[in-house]
Specification:
Layout: H1 14-31, H2 37-47, H3 52-83, H4 88-116, H5 141-163, H6 171-190, H7 194-220, E1 222-223, E2 226-228, H8 229-265, H9 272-301, H10 313-325, H11 331-341, E3 360-363, E4 366-371
Parallel strand pairs: 2-4
Antiparallel strand pairs: 1-2, 3-4
Length: about 375
């Protein structure tokens, strides 16, 4: 099966992708006269290749990632948060972002190496992911290492999202995302679609790097009772870069490179419908999260406080109200904080603070020293 290496096929546009993919999918569906449980079972037995040793390695490495994260959190990330004197809420979330930043930077650099510093042509010629494909073909060791790292990490991430990470509005969707990603990784490895997997991982990991970098700088801009302008600027730069690359990598390159190759170029691969359904669901989740990014941009344009828009704002409001009721916040400051949280801040709100040091920066109703 598979075409021989030839000229690079030009990347299509959205309309061409939709029209050609839909026609190929419909034709494949009509031609599948014996689709059903019997064919599915026979295809699994004939084309799925994975050993018990590889399964054992997966579970061992997933356990190892969990232990490494716990060790780094207790020995490095939490002490660092205390040393930086982060706010309690930020200090609780900082280890999660630091851990993800370390992992995704490592994994994305390795994917970049495979795609741009080896002989693999997958990025510039996406249909080449299926050139010379054969059922049960050996997986190159460098790609197998990438699969073991990524697969075991997402196995760990399912556990971590439920039991270790801060719970957010989209955490349930995140669990579904991890399950689908893990299913894609395991499925593509067993059926030897590993070339596609490397391209998918490369197109997705870069956004996680920028997201965690941005969140870390959001946490670090208010520390030790001060406000740090450099971290605020880095957070804003990270958020802009994150928004741009999310669209470019996940909503432009991912469908036009990956989905075009898997839907249009090779309609006769085993589990064609199942494989492409998982990829389409991944695209839909990327669109779903892009809505959060749009909300984030709108929030910045309205000059609201920049936080993760996925957090439960109701919980933050309840905490502020409880603190005010207990007398922990003075009424004018509490009113200013509530106004800021609801986007109703006006220049007149600061009229009663002329006696405040002009080097102070008000954030969340608390005056902080300004630093570069």
């Amino acid at each position: 099966m598979g075409a021989e290496t030839g000229d690079v096929e030009p990347m299509p546009g959205y309309l061409e992708l939709i029209s050609r993919a839909s026609s190929v999918i419909l034709k494949s569906w009509r031609d599948c006269s014996d689709c059903g449980l019997e064919l599915t079972t026979r295809t699994l037995l004939d084309h799925a290749y994975i050993t018990w040793t590889e399964i054992a390695l997966f579970f061992f490495c997933a356990f190892l990632w969990t232990q490494i994260r716990r060790g780094l959190t207790e020995c490095l990330f939490k002490p660092l948060a205390r040393w930086c004197r982060l706010l309690p809420k930020d200090g609780a979330k900082m280890p999660e972002s630091a851990w993800k930043l370390v992992f995704y930077t490592m994994s994305w650099c390795y994917s970049t190496y495979l795609l741009f510093f080896t002989s693999y042509p997958f990025f510039h010629d996406p249909p080449s992911v299926f050139y010379n494909w054969k059922s049960g073909m050996p997986v190159p060791i460098d790609i197998a290492i990438a699969y073991l790292i990524q697969g075991s990490f997402y196995g760990h991430s399912i556990y971590a999202t439920v039991y270790m990470d801060a719970w957010r509005k989209d955490s349930a969707v995140m669990v579904v995302h991890h399950i689908i990603t893990l299913a894609l990784i395991c499925f593509s490895y067993a059926f030897r679609y590993h070339n596609v997997g490397i391209l998918v991982l490369f197109l997705h990991d870069i956004n996680d790097i920028q997201l965690e970098f941005t969140k870390l700088n959001v946490y670090l801009k208010s520390r030790g009772g001060g406000y740090f302008l450099l971290n605020d600027l880095l957070a804003n730069m990270g958020s802009v870069s994150f928004s741009i690359t999310w669209f470019w990598f996940r909503l432009y390159w991912f469908p036009l490179k990956v989905l075009y190759a898997t839907c249009v170029s090779v309609p006769n691969i085993p589990f064609y419908f199942f494989f492409n359904t998982l990829l389409l669901v991944l695209l839909l989740m990327n669109i779903y999260w892009f809505l959060f990014i749009v909300l984030f941009v709108v929030k910045v344009l309205k000059m609201k406080e920049v936080n993760d828009v996925r957090e439960y704002e109701e919980e933050e409001g309840a905490k502020a109200a409880a603190a005010a009721a207990a007398g922990l916040l003075k009424k004018p400051l509490a009113a200013a904080a509530v106004a800021r949280n609801h986007g109703d801040h006006h220049p007149d709100d600061d009229a009663g603070h002329h006696n405040t040091d002009e080097r102070k920066h008000a954030q969340n109703g608390i005056a902080k020293e300004k630093h570069l």
